[in-house]
């Protein structure tokens, strides 16, 4: 089966400084793949390169089996950016989600079928009652669900998400995780995460990036650690992924020594 | 109603009405992009166009349109390439355009005083030819700004998301600044180049206080801008005042009145809103309910 995303020997530099080096990975249909790593490791850079938002200096990126440079099927990809990157004041929830149905050659008001798509996406994230509310008046968790609905509205085959849990408490992270889990039969999800607690049980594979290099590509071995963390007192700060990632790497090192 | 018997007043009213509608329309996008002072910078560039026209003896309005559009394209080109931040680019527009305009007006023997009617608006300076240009440009601005509103909204609200959708984001960004430049110059005869930016921003801010949502806000700002522009032009005739200044003062009065109105509307909305149930509470959200079921 053709991978939805195939990255081979990817090299990305920003401002002349190398950020990603020799990254090779793939996302298969219906997989939920997490991109993990510490701050500045290159997680967001990887997905921005995959989406063509920044140029890569070396290697190849294929989307749905087509080289990225000639790929035109952007309507099959949903994108959920970091919440801080959007400017949504004086905008309602429905307006934001409706913008997700646009295509390069589509003009004019929404058709009835598209309005139904918007309704369905709002229903999936549980925000039907808030459709007419101002985005800025919602809580952080609700705002994140609005952006997810916008990413889902076209019914994409691949949903790319950049730290959707930033600023969202664990309870709401689990709600969002439940939404994503309910969509896995329709699409693959490539998700940048800083914390894995809420998603640990539904992640199929983890790509762990350390200092711009792929340090791990496989099952989320830190799953047990993250799961155990669920029973810790809520006042304790959430375990960050770097700890999970270093646990994976250390375990691999120990197994290698044996 | 003697003002409707005077051709120059009819021209001024038509031009002001069009500026009152088109300036807030394009202003809605500019405010969404958090570039509220772009209109001010473009107004200063247009002053250079007026100065150039005075120096060369050409008609001021067409020259100002061309110079302002070129300046707008330049600043957007610099912004897209990261060669200048929005602030620095606007500062260059402010001072370079103003200085060039005054210098060229001085060379033409008119000095800064010769620019006064263009800086603050004048009821008597609108010629029939100017009116034709203003009507044509305003119609084009309104058609594009309203017709492409879903695309322009997507680009202004979240540029990266619009790029992932495959929208021609660079083209739309250029279009927004060109439409803003055309709007600034078409309003220079009635509102004035130094004050037109207020008509692009204040009705938008007023509408955002009263209406909820991007498109309701845009429609509301068009109505508020139209009322302010017509009130200002007609009032300036009877009170013998500069029309641009009166239009801006009326706009600010509307903005001030929108605050208490906004409080009343929001209080009523909160009472009737489903958010009174706070569905972001995990215990009451539909998602949680679904899971429990």
Give your account of this protein's structure:
The complex is a heterodimer of chains A (258) and B (293). Chain A is an alpha/beta fold and 258 residues long. In chain A, 30% of the residues lie in helices and 23% in strands. The radius of gyration of chain A is 18 Å and the shape is globular. The relative contact order of chain A is 0.17. Chain B is mostly helical and 293 residues long. Chain B has one domain: Orthogonal Bundle (ABC transporter involved in vitamin B12 uptake, BtuC). Helix content of chain B is 76%, strand content 0%.
Helix content of chain A: 25-40%
Chains forming the largest contact: A-B, 50 and 41 residues
Q: Mean pLDDT of chain A, nearest integer? A: 82
Helical percentage of chain B? over 70%
Provide the spatial order of strands within the biggest beta sheet of chain A: 6-7-8-3-9-10
Tally of DSSP β-strands of chain B = 0
Mean pLDDT score of chain B = 85
